[in-house]
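Q: Could you fold this chain for me?
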Amino acid sequence: MAQRFGNLKVYFPNIVFKIIPDARLAKNQAAFRVPLNINKLDIKDYLTHVYNVTVTDVRTTVFPGKLAVNRYSGQKERSSRIKKAIVTMKEEFEYPKEANTDKDFGGLEMKYETLRRANKLKGWRIRPSVEMMAMRSQVRESRAATEEANTKND
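A: Sure. Below is the predicted structure, expressed as structure tokens.
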């Protein structure tokens, strides 16, 4: 009988772990913000299978939501709860470097668009400011650099 492919179901996790930098933790510990429905065993299983990390201990705490007064109705409302997990690993943990949002995720273009829209709301005729003109030239240069890099790769 021939071997059949595609019968085994593969489950990808739809869980989001947000790293919380904390200077008070030891070198082999990391803090994560996790969903409320995840338990310690799930956290350990997720980190060992997805990131190949040997987890020795998991501690979790659930922080209550902050109390705020609704400015329209005057009623007290509570924000959603947050679950924090502190994970101890066998190896030392290094926090990933912060991404450059202007370069990697189009942040410069988003800033330019918000400035352009704000200028448009000031009056019926768009008068670009000096800051907007400088940002426009930066956007054009970044677009040209990415197009040039794409043509070199092809």
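A (continued): The two ends are 44 Å apart (CA to CA).
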